[in-house]
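Help needed: design a sequence for this.
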């Protein structure tokens, strides 16, 4: 089984069990996850849910390799995102306590399985990222909602650069709610399962991280649309800005444009509205060659050198961009 459900002492335990694929969420896992969550929502014997990843990692994201390989047979690309985003919304509406253990890699789709719950426990090896601009896609699973609600344009920074955040940044930003020591993992799980109590370690954020040290600069640099952000970074002579610019220049230009507009427009919108917009957008972006080239380059050949089309940021015009934001008939109906 690629996902395991267990009921123990009023706790529903979900284990993502594809450790060789860093527990990437495929459509079958998402379907039975949704069914089980709906059942537990009504089951009076279940008081809380614990979500964990088998092995060293939590979850690397949605199984984008399957999207690439199936070539949209049986409208797979439509169904995959519908199931995934509906699950994200279901988790946000779940009536009971919901705890996720963020060990190791927590990316994209994995964030969507956990960020709408009550507790996200990070540890010293946690590696969080929204890396979709590397594969010709955009930060989804409601990312436009939670990223647009972060202070000081940090959400745009995270979404455009795909930078990896660790425990200090995650606690500082409230993306993680609590810290645990990895050697206490079994204790933490058993305690939660048996008593519903969380073992909380004291955690003093170390402000000496690249993100926290540069947060005022990030706020200034990431204000506005993509053209403004690029020009801010080009005109700023700091080492940080030039490093970030090099990172951004490697990402998919269309992804950068779409992600910036998506996050800017999401300000003040509900999670439901954000997921509807993201679904529409997913059904435009996932059929572009950038998506195939990006996934192929990052996950199949692993050369990490995709050829983007358009290749350069200044080759994209607003008309082309706005076309992707036009609403169409494919809706989520959350
Ligand atoms: C961007 C992404 C993903 C990614 C890498 C990116 C993503 C994803 C995976 C992934 C990683 C390891 C696996 C796997 C999938 O990597 O969504 O099956 O074994 O799932 O740069 O969006």
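Sure. Designed sequence:
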């Amino acid at each position: 089984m690629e996902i395991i459900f267990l009921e123990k002492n009023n706790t529903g335990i979900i284990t993502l069990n594809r450790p060789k694929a860093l527990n990437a969420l495929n459509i079958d896992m998402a379907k039975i996850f949704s069914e089980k969550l709906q059942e537990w929502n009504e089951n009076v014997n279940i008081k809380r849910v614990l979500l964990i990843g088998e092995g060293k990692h939590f979850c690397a994201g949605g199984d984008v390799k399957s999207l690439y390989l199936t070539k949209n047979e049986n409208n797979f690309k439509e169904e995959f995102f519908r199931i995934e985003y509906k699950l994200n919304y279901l988790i946000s509406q779940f009536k009971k306590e919901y705890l996720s253990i963020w060990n190791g890699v927590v990316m994209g789709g994995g964030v969507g399985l956990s960020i709408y719950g009550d507790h996200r426990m990070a540890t010293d090896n946690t590696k969080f990222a929204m890396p979709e601009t590397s594969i010709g896609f955009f930060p989804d699973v409601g990312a436009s909602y939670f990223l647009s609600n972060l202070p000081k344009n940090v959400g745009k920074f995270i979404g455009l650069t795909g930078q990896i955040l660790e425990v200090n940044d995650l606690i500082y930003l409230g993306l993680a709610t609590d810290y645990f020591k990895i050697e206490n993992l079994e204790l933490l799980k058993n305690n939660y399962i048996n008593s519903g109590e969380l073992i909380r370690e004291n955690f003093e954020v170390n402000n000496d991280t690249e993100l926290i040290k540069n947060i005022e600069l990030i706020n200034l640099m990431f204000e506005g649309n993509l053209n403004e952000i690029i020009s801010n970074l080009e005109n700023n002579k700091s080492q940080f800005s030039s490093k970030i610019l090099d990172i951004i220049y490697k990402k998919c230009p269309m992804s950068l444009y779409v992600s910036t507009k998506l996050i800017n427009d999401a300000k003040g919108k509900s999670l439901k509205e954000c997921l509807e917009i993201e679904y529409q957008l997913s059904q435009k972006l996932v059929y572009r060659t950038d998506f195939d080239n990006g996934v192929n380059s990052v996950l199949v050949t692993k050369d990490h050198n995709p050829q983007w089309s358009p290749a350069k940021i200044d080759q994209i015009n607003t008309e082309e961009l706005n076309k992707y934001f036009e609403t169409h008939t494919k809706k989520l109906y959350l």
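DSSP finds 16 helices and eight strands in the chain.
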